[in-house]
Design a protein that fits this description.
Radius of gyration: 18 Å
Number of helices: 11
CATH class: Alpha Beta
Shape: globular
Number of domains: 1
Strand order of the largest sheet: 2-1-3-4-7-8
Oligomer: single chain
CATH superfamily: Alpha/Beta hydrolase fold, catalytic domain
CATH architecture: 3-Layer(aba) Sandwich
Distance between the termini: 17 Å
Number of strands: 8
CATH topology: Rossmann fold
Amino acid sequence: MRRRQLVAAAAALPGAAMAQATAPTPARTGRQATFVLQHGAWHGGWCWRRVADRLQALGHRVVTPTSTGLGERAHLISSMVTLEVFVTDLVNAIESQELEDIVLVGHSFGGLAISGAADRLAKRIRHLVYLDSVILQPGQSVLGSLRPEVAAARRESIRAGGGISLPPPPASFFGIGDPSDVAWLQRRLTPHPAGTYDSPLTLANQVGNGLPRTYIACTRDALASIEPMRQWVRQQPGWRYEEMAEVHNVMMTAPDTLTRRLLDIAGV
């Protein structure tokens, strides 16, 4: 009875009508899981609200950290914010809350922070989920990984941001068309620290550090800039690769679908 009440409560949360999946909620083991949800570029922990609400309604622990210079921490943006800062932000969030047995999810640019955290905190992590994520190899930078024309466009955006930041793109870039969600993004998106694009990702081990890991590609209006990274994952042993017929910001447009998938990965 308790589980049925929790599932019903999750379905009744704001945004539930937007869920696109019709599959029934899978059976649960009753075991609590811990999810750490890392946002992507221009976003903050706020973007996970719909998924976090659903997971918490089902009794799970959810942490949604925000990287330096973004979201509610936008006032901290500077030329000193690098990928190393983003990784340290996430590592500190996990360590300060003494989290263990984590399902660590990185959306888009957030894939870089979870790679860094996995490199340093492997014993605390149960599973890595790269959600339509950027993936870099050790010592690589984002600008160095992009096709020349895409990198040139990013550098032009940095110049437009005064050399310190990249201005947010339109909501359509993230696959968002619903007017209320467009308004939500326009209110909440903030300029992204430019230093995270041209600084290297420092890893002592290979990406994923040998942990169980799943890459979920969003195939509806798929972002071309990360297609080479998706292709790389498909060729690697030890990776589970899946596709979801949703837009890039799936946590906003299909929170029920994504919540069910994360619960499946967590085994709860």
